[in-house]
Fold:
Amino acid sequence: MTEFVQMLQFPFLQRALIVGILVSLCAALLGVSLVLKRFSMIGDGLAHVGFASLAVAYAFNAAPLMVSIPVCLVAAFFVLRVTENSKIKGDAATALLMSGSLAIGVMVISLTQGMNTDVCNYMFGSILAMSTSDVILSVVLSTIVVILFVFFYNKIFAITFDEDFSRATGIHTNWYNMLLAALTSVTVVLGMRMMGALLISSLVVMPAISAMRVCHRFLTVVITSAVISVLCFVVGIYISYTFSTPTGASIVITNLLVFGVCSLVRSGRSH
Structure:
């Protein structure tokens, strides 16, 4: 406990905790719907797009977050359009997006400044990378994501479980799918600073699947997922600070352990 109090004395860790808790909350809320709709890999795809857009932003000395968020929004729209209007399935469209974006990002980096520290921070994550302006932007956008999710909760619930029935009852399912993808895009870009492009999708998927092991109603799964996500983030940050381990990896391993515990709880109930 003493070490945790000492940890909070560092301004960069205070910034990391504020942003990380908010992003973890957003990722957990959205992750339940994405997993149930079998669209969980969109987070990974958008992270790769975010990496490519960051590489381009650095090449032209532009603000990274200001470039990445609109680019990821366009990419999310592209995936949804391709999935709905062609024979390409969602996972294939996401794979296409991931490989293409990563190739573009690596090519831009190789032709400009090379793999510098800033690019590595976005690839693998760094709690040292959060500036005050990043924190302000992240807090504002994360708050908007949570408010929109709560406001449109009933519609998101409807399209998650039965999209055809929702469409038949007059719900504009395409619009709400786009909203879900847009909120995911913002969350992924904000989380890349902390987790890195290679690990951010775990923040979307793992708390959701852990919660699904022990809960069965949508609302309880969403709430449990949010609690698990925030707790795993805080524990992961503490482990990273105490043992000098990579932040993103520490958070993912904590989530893995929680998933193992939840799986054991489910097995115990079934016997």
Notes: The chain has 13 helices and no strands. The chain has a mean pLDDT of 84. Residues 49 and 63 are 16 Å apart (CA to CA).
